[in-house]
Specification:
heterotrimer; A mainly alpha (186); B mainly alpha (150); C mainly alpha (115); C: 0% strand
């Protein structure tokens, strides 16, 4: 039952991605982008990850606002130009088809969907975290115990990456307003 | 960036406090129920973004100025790192050891348990919220050349 | 079967990055690839008839920890989602700056206008 619902959600997301690729108007592509994010959030709920569903929904809303802010005024003067001609796209089709075939063959060696590898083995890290999470850390949410106690160093790296990207975005946007203020003064 | 119509302004004025309260609830209950620092921080940023969209950027800068958001951003990251170093100095074993849980454990399923997890959630929530608001205000400040009729 | 659909979503995003000339379409293609990879990581850890890995009360503790889905991919994807938002903000700010300087989003024209 859950697999059938996941298949439907994935088909919905693929149809949304096809619309995004072929659409002309820039503002509409930003809006259709939202369907992929919201379908993903519902899929996270069915896969047993409510933490991720909350974060995905709010992040999708903010990224939609940022994308619409980028395309709203520039949409009047500019539509999406047509892409390269069909003949010169043939090498790209070949590469993409090869990528699909090789990765599909690699997926045959994965364990079947619904029975991951940690089920039988008691010394797998997932089993150790699940059994001892509450005793050693005192937190009921095992995912929070993993990201902030067992693997807190990765969270420090993530905070650093987020900080760096925000500082980069602020420094790129700041330069223009300072020049603009100097031009207005002159 | 100008504001919106009167209905949107009235509703945004009423709701923005509740959104911040909800974000704080998700941060503080991060170790008991789904959520945590990242989700709560993004929700708090969304409240300030709502004020920016409804009223224009001058009103939003009065509530949380640009300097204030940068300061909160730095305080969030530095306190997260400082808690990690404290774990190394006090407990003596490793970076990030849970020294609060070792010396003063609470009982499970309450709010005041799992020492370092609660403190780190608060630090991350402050950091993520203020940095996303700073980026959005910078994007709203930036006026393109052809924007005359917005 | 589900893994193949996830791979198709990733390939659609890759195709969008490779063939489109408009800068906003390239950014949207990168965002689609991010979503596809996050979905794939969480799909790897799913367990049939599994429960959420959150312990609700002391009575059902053993029952929950023996039937839970894998919590490790969720921990990885949680940080990945927030990082992809930061990357999107950085790319959009660069795109706005390029539009300010060149007046177009077309990458072939941006290459030809020098200085």
């Amino acid at each position: 039952m859950v697999e059938f619902i996941l298949l439907l959600l994935l088909l919905f997301m693929i149809i949304g991605a096809l619309f995004v690729i072929e659409m002309d108007n820039l503002l509409s592509t930003a809006v259709v982008m939202g369907t992929i994010g919201f379908g993903l959030s519902v899929a996270f709920l069915f896969l047993g990850a409510p933490d991720l569903a909350i974060v995905q929904i709010v992040v999708e809303i903010i990224s939609l606002v940022i994308l619409i802010r980028a395309t709203i005024n520039r949409d009047i003067k500019e539509k999406a130009e047509e892409s390269t001609s069909l003949v010169s796209r043939i090498p790209i089709f070949v590469i993409v088809a090869l990528l699909f075939i090789f990765t599909y063959n690699a997926f045959q060696h994965l364990p079947p969907f619904g029975s991951p590898l940690f089920i039988g083995r008691l010394d797998a890290p997932a089993n150790i975290y699940l059994q001892n999470g509450l005793n050693k850390t005192g937190a009921s949410n095992i995912v929070a115990a993993i990201i902030l106690d067992f693997r807190a160093y990765d969270t420090l790296g993530e905070a650093t990456v987020l900080f760096t990207s925000i500082v980069g975005a602020l420094s790129i946007l700041r330069l223009v307003t300072r020049k603009r203020k100097e031009e207005k003064d002159k | 960036m100008k504001g919106m119509s009167l209905i949107v302004k009235v509703i945004a004025e009423l709701i923005k406090g509740f959104i911040i309260l909800f974000g704080v609830y998700i941060i503080l209950n991060g170790h008991l129920s789904p959520g945590g620092g990242f989700a709560g921080g993004v929700i708090i940023a969304a409240s300030y973004i709502l004020v920016t969209l409804a009223f224009g950027r001058e009103r939003a800068m009065k509530e949380l100025s640009e300097r204030g958001s940068h300061l909160l951003d730095d305080i969030g990251v530095l306190s997260f790192w400082f808690i990690a170093v404290l774990g190394w100095i006090i407990a003596g074993q490793a970076f990030f050891s849970n020294f609060i849980q070792r010396f003063a454990p609470g009982s499970p399923f309450q709010i005041l348990t799992s020492g370092i997890i609660l403190a780190c959630n608060i630090a991350i929530g402050i950091k993520v919220g203020s940095s996303l608001f700073a980026v959005f205000v910078a994007l709203a400040h930036f006026e393109p050349a052809g924007e005359g009729e917005d | 079967m589900i893994y193949s659909l996830c791979l198709i979503l990733f390939i659609l995003g890759l195709y969008c990055v490779l063939t489109k000339k408009n800068l906003i379409k390239i950014i949207v293609g990168l965002a689609i690839m991010d979503n596809a990879v996050n979905l794939f990581l969480v799909l790897l850890g799913y367990r049939s008839n599994g429960v959420v890995p959150i312990i609700t009360n002391n009575v059902e503790r053993v029952a929950i920890t023996q039937r839970a889905v894998d919590p490790i991919p969720q921990a990885l994807v949680l940080t990945s989602i927030v990082i992809s938002l930061g990357i999107l903000a950085l790319m959009v700010s660069m795109a706005i700056r390029l539009y300010e300087k060149y007046g177009t989003f077309d990458i072939t024209k941006i290459r030809k206008l020098k200085g």
